[in-house]
Specification:
Oligomer: single chain
Strand order of the largest sheet: 2-3-1-4-5
CATH class: Alpha Beta
Order of helices and strands: EHEHHHHHEHEHHEH
Helix content: 40-55%
Length: about 210
């Protein structure tokens, strides 16, 4: 990946691996935009960006997303990085229709076209597979380590944390299989796979930067 040209880093992660925070830190260090699941969903809800609406916008204006993206995808800052630690790994799971997936895919493509960015989750590794300057990263961790992190971040007891981790693992695997035909745990989908066990989020971000360098 060449940092001297527009690039995109897609960050796939397991719940409790710290991937969401790693993405924020990485974007800050690279001084590029960071987009995650919540930001993409906010675009859909705030502006009614269905797949059909996006197609109409694209026919009217080449850079249609530029008018919307500044409201929900700010450049990273110290205060932005510290926000929302409770929902660190996107622990809510929604039923996703094919229509929603198509809209999300269009938004992700346009975010990448707008300029260099870090995009977390939402099948970005697959949606942007043909991007010419794309680094695909997967953040994993041991189940015990992920459960401990969920307990700490979500304030759950151990039994509830285990159930949450297992439920979201199943939901994300089904989502990836249904809409991309891939196994999210297949290392061939990624350029870099990192275990966050024994490392801070900042250390993992530095590992990714070292790999790029």
């Amino acid at each position: 990946m060449n940092l001297n040209e527009p690039f995109v880093i897609t960050l796939s992660r397991e719940i409790g691996s710290g991937g969401h925070t790693i993405g924020r830190i990485l974007a800050e260090k690279l001084n590029v935009r960071y987009s995650d699941r919540d930001i993409i969903k906010n675009l859909e809800k705030k502006f009614g960006l269905t797949a059909d609406a996006i197609e109409k916008l694209k026919s009217q204006k080449k850079n249609w997303l530029a008018d919307f993206v500044q409201f929900v995808t700010p450049m990273p800052s110290a205060s932005y990085l510290g926000a929302g630690s409770g929902a660190d790994d996107g622990t809510d799971v929604e039923v996703t229709t094919g229509e929603i997936y198509r809209a999300e895919a269009e938004i992700i493509r346009e975010l990448a076209n707008e300029g260099s960015c870090v995009i977390a989750g939402r099948s970005g590794f697959h949606i942007l597979k043909d991007h010419p300057n794309h680094l695909r990263v997967f953040i994993t961790a041991s189940k015990a380590g992920r459960v401990r992190r969920v307990i700490r971040k979500q304030g759950l007891d151990e039994a509830a944390a285990v159930k949450l981790v297992e439920r979201i693992d199943r939901a994300r695997e089904l989502y990836i299989r249904q809409y991309t035909g891939n196994n999210r745990y297949d290392a061939r989908n990624y350029d870099l796979v990192i275990s966050s066990d024994g490392h801070t989020e900042a250390q993992i971000a530095d590992i990714i930067l070292s790999y790029i360098g």
